[in-house]
Specification:
This protein has helices spanning about 10-15, 35-45, 60-70, 80-90, 105-115, 135-140, 165-170, 190, 230-240, 245-255, 260-280, 305-315, 340-355, and strands spanning about 25, 75-80, 95-100, 115-120, 145-150, 175-180, 205-210, 220-225, 285-290, 295-300, 320, 320, 335. The two termini are about 40 Å apart. With about 350 residues, the protein is an alpha/beta fold. Strands 2-8-7-6-5-3-4 form a 7-stranded mixed beta sheet, with helices on both faces. It has a 4-stranded antiparallel beta sheet with strand order 9-10-13-12, with helices on one face. It is globular and about 55 Å long.
Amino acid sequence: MTSHGANVFDIAKSKKIDVKEISDFSSNINPLGASKKTLEYLKDNLNLLFTYPDPKYIDLKKSIADYTNSNPQNIILGLGATEILKESIKYYQSANSMILSPCYSEYEEELEKINSRIFYFDLNYTDKFKINVDEIINAINLKKINLLVFANPNNPTGTILKKDEIKKILQNTNVKLIVDETYVEFCDQNIYSSGELTKKYENLLIVRGTSKFFSLPGIRLGYGLTSDIKLIENFKNKEVLWQINSVADICGQKMFKDDKYLNNVYSFIETRREYLLKELNKITNLEPIESKGNFILVKIHNEITSTKLRQILAQELMIIRDCKNFRGLDSSYFRFCILSDKENEKLLKSLRKIFN
């Protein structure tokens, strides 16, 4: 089973402390919490828990369609983005697949399950892990890739392709393309989100969730955008009746419409990300990689390893992501997500002390 960040509950139990005392910089969840308007709406509609949800989820799909500039009939619902990723990879049954390196490990795990031959498109430190779209196109055509799966922004590097660059891939290859947009809401969606491209390109699937940006991992609501009729039918045939529970349905009808919340989260992450990048660049032997996610990958340039750093910070109840297990990275890399101003400053203070 793939782990998503640290198990802070185990850590809290072992240290006999309240879980709230731990700053989890490994989970990549929006620190501002869920939309208050959405939670109030849920509270005011608790009576709906005594009835079955609409099996067609008409209102939920309309809310998602308006938010993503897509068509309601092109929306797939799932138990988190993970379910949609797993089922779509299984459906495509690609002989030759490509993923980025480094990337989220679950893509590789799911491709191995269908015995797909996996090719790795390496992102390099010398290029600051930037993605070269022309090189990807050449690699797809040369190696006869059937399926390309990647996150945009990429996890853990935070590097990204623009919507126009993804369009260029679709125009110059015949590849099936799964774009995991788990973190795209933390940057300018008009430039980077490919949701509207699904109206024209049937070989494109956009996958999103509500855990990271909307800070609601517990409701397990994920969705996909595609105009591939056969793929949509495949999901319909596998669905159980009332697959999405009432809490996810109710929250989903409201959260995507809370413009004030959406703007506040975007603005908070954007300003703190720029501040943290600037401050990290001042610390001796640390090199942050430019990111468009709500997390930052950092390279260490001295003898301190990512594992040692994680141990030191854990003693101060701060949990970072040791990136040595990512393919293409080593023990000189760690990743952390943006938390509250107080927690961010605490992390910076410790890093300055350790490295300066």
